[in-house]
User: Fold these one by one.
Assistant:
Number 1:
Amino acid sequence: MSEGVEWAVHCCVVLTSVAAPVPAARLAELHQVSPTYLAKQLQALARAGLVFSVQGKSGGYVLSRPPAEITLLDVVEAIDGPEPAFVCTEIRQRGPMATPAEYCTTPCPISRAMAASESARRDALRSVTIAGLAEQVEAGSGAGTLNGVAAWLGSTGT
Amino acid sequence: MSEGVEWAVHCCVVLTSVAAPVPAARLAELHQVSPTYLAKQLQALARAGLVFSVQGKSGGYVLSRPPAEITLLDVVEAIDGPEPAFVCTEIRQRGPMATPAEYCTTPCPISRAMAASESARRDALRSVTIAGLAEQVEAGSGAGTLNGVAAWLGSTGT
DNA sequence: GGTCAGGTACTCGGATAGAGTATGTCCGAGTGAGTAGGG
DNA sequence: CCCTACTCACTCGGACATACTCTATCCGAGTACCTGACC
């Protein structure tokens, strides 16, 4: 899986506690990652409609929806793309013992099994929201952690 | 996901109906895929212990276990590798607002959610066996399909 | 006829090139804020 | 004192290089089968 997914999810979680837009460069500084590449991931989030991008002097990125309405699946698909990992190339219709196309009314069993596993993964990802993740972060690292991060993001120093 | 996974699964399914070893080149001809690259995938299956490779004039590959004891997960992991797609790089421990390492006794919530989705996918893949797939192929394409393929694999002509 | 040695052809196995995608970087377009001037 | 127009600095956005993995290929190592000779 793309490493940018992890960055994007972390960004969404910290964005839950801020109201003003946060520039990509500041998020990169917070996470110590490549600013330009993180910007690319945030652009993908913007294209997917998960965040709003505002330009200008005090611009940046803001969540476009309440965190409870953004699922982990939304973020993963925004970065990695919505197409499933497994694509059936219809091997059964090729070669000397090919199954005639008229018999292939349903997806082949292998494709179905792969689709089922993909679906299970997507269901698991869909059941987790950004708000839920933020809640767990607070529970794990202490209440007020995200507010502290938000304060740092809003300030100008290091 | 690696395209070789699809090839490998198809090979495992057709191997359920043969007793004698089948050369990689013949499986490639059956599926109309690159012989040398398919050979590489079969080598991976052999390394994982899913198939036995026998050398010599009438050599080839045979399933090492009853098809009911080989799961789709086994094949996928043999080709794509057993390591999970998502790897947590512990972003929370980096940057100016880093969480101290002593607070990181449990995996971060994001990592946990990703692991859960991976686990769901693996469970789905584990619940499908090669024998089950072969059964569904017979049900879909007509009884005797696999035996016909087996006969073709055993013969010498095209 | 049976046994054994040798050759041969066929197999797998790992080491070796090429293509596509993920990663990382750069510069230009756009815009909101701040400022200076005028009314 | 308020309004307006301008400048400017800061932001995003897409176009451009680089590294790595997936795909595809080649040739060498090994082995079972077949053939032939010998007993």
Number 2:
Amino acid sequence: MDRVKKTKIKATPRMSRVTIIDVAEQAGVHWSTVSRALNPAKRHLISPEMIERISACVKRLGYRQNAMASALRTQKTRTIGVIVSNLGDPIHPPIVRAIEDRLGEIGYVVFVGNTDNDSMREAALIDRFISQGVDGLIVATFKLKDPLVDKCLLAGVPTVAVFRDPERPEIPSVRVDDAEAMARAVRHLVELGHRKIAHVGGPQNLSTGRNRYRGFRKACKTAFGADSEVIAKFGKAFTVDEGHSACGELLDQHRAITAIVAGNDMLAIGCLSAINHRGIKCPGDISLIGMNDMLFMDAVYPPLTTMHTPSRELGLQAANLLIDMIDGKKIEKGRHILASNLIIRSSASKPN
Amino acid sequence: MDRVKKTKIKATPRMSRVTIIDVAEQAGVHWSTVSRALNPAKRHLISPEMIERISACVKRLGYRQNAMASALRTQKTRTIGVIVSNLGDPIHPPIVRAIEDRLGEIGYVVFVGNTDNDSMREAALIDRFISQGVDGLIVATFKLKDPLVDKCLLAGVPTVAVFRDPERPEIPSVRVDDAEAMARAVRHLVELGHRKIAHVGGPQNLSTGRNRYRGFRKACKTAFGADSEVIAKFGKAFTVDEGHSACGELLDQHRAITAIVAGNDMLAIGCLSAINHRGIKCPGDISLIGMNDMLFMDAVYPPLTTMHTPSRELGLQAANLLIDMIDGKKIEKGRHILASNLIIRSSASKPN
DNA sequence: TGATTTCATGCACACGTTTGTCAACGGGAT
DNA sequence: ATCCCGTTGACAAACGTGTGCATGAAATCA
């Protein structure tokens, strides 16, 4: 009734939804009591029968806490932001899914945004998320030494990098051992008998692109000697198209190669298309290994031998890390590196 | 300084970020002036040079509007919620992506949540989104006549159904013409010469599952006569596994069939696996048509003939519809139905 | 029974905005 | 000089919660 009196006239047509004051009125108590009864952390201050009564009113009126008001008061939104380059890239959905699962089970709700690897867009997105008051950020788009990390740091928002690692010690990251993954792929090919192995890689300003290339390079040097030639082409992005054209150039310029290690499965699919396009055979004429083991890589032709990335686990660990940061627990600020293992299918075989 | 005085002691260590009051102080004006200067709709009330001065202070201090406070005041969060069954299902990411693109360009930010088709989880998610004060909801998980629609209606949250249609006149939906898509697939097979065609469908309590089956059924009746037998098996979900087992049963029980129309590509991939598993050939022994044309369906073996679903367009139209609803424009409350067209690849050929 | 502790609840302020209302000011017309 | 009007800027009241502190009642103890 307090509220009703205060409105200028009764003209205000009760547009607002039911508030804590309404249920207090129903229950015949002060709303602060309702607030406490509804807050698990303060519930112990209230008598059980009162809690019961209030709960009944809550249910009857269909009361829902106003998260904005609560957030304004507590400075916590129970909201986190997830930033990916492109949800349409099959590597991301499982990560986002895992994050949402983990965070959802403790009452968080997640924003997602795409950047298309555009720094402007990424900066704007971070700003918007911070403005929304997210309690934390999980970012899969940081470039190496990305200055955007500062924006998060400056705002004091707990941030963890996932998948791509900006390699900035101020924030933790969760990723796969990219270099070792590529090295493993190379070793597999070497074991099969290949001696001319090329790399179709991704952008070198990304940890994924760079580390994978480095792993490839190192494994080649180890296998073929320090002054052996390292054959590689880089796409401007991890896309099928870029894989197709990079592989095309490779095939034209180096006729002797018998195997390709692609920087990821998208590039690998592009390689496959370039290979087919030229009428040569995989794995007959040329072997191919991808990375990530995206969905359906077992159904393509030929079924793709690839390095499996535990994407769900990436998301899970990133989420757990973030939760700990938000809760103020001391956490390992370093690199959290997961293993990627070889999935042998049919796209890589002995050279003929 | 007002604020400083009011804090109990100066003990409060400036934990809060920079507020509108700080910039007002810097600019030497009242904060209401700052608010207006920053609000495009009210900016005309302020002199250009003042706007300039204020903007400078904003930039200098790195002020970011507190969305919670703003939302609390205006009852608008510029936030919308998107609900899907499973982001891991390749049909969803493009839809979500399109929604985020469209809404993002006008300053909205989107929540996403997964339900795994669990009504409890879905209800909880809707509650949580509403509690967060979303300005609108785009839901891809409604079942036929889903009572959860009422929850949204009751809360007065603009809601549009996408992909799956609850077929409730109170809310608009945008989807593909599922029945016609299946019919088109059947006609294609009939034209190729098939006479024994079966359906591997999805759950019949979903518009997608039911309409596709109906379209299949009707087309068969049209082609083979009203009292021809309609052969169909239904999976409990649109998954590869369900497709595999349903197709297995089909193959065991009906040896004469020469073609299968799957309810979607996931089921189709499952069918493919069941077919391969039995050592029969696709399309040699049995033709297969999927639906949706998910990513990589051109790279599987055999390249899948399928009905293309314009998923991006689905998301775009849903977003546009929602924007109009939020803006209070009168909109078409009915069904918005997009066409799905046949993509001919290699999994369907003449029967031998 | 009176003093003291414990417990449940009420009070009021603060969180950071937006916005209706109004005062102040300056210029132009009479 | 007076009056009026238009332009700017200031004020204060919400929006719905959380929470430290005060209060009152009941319970405990001497």
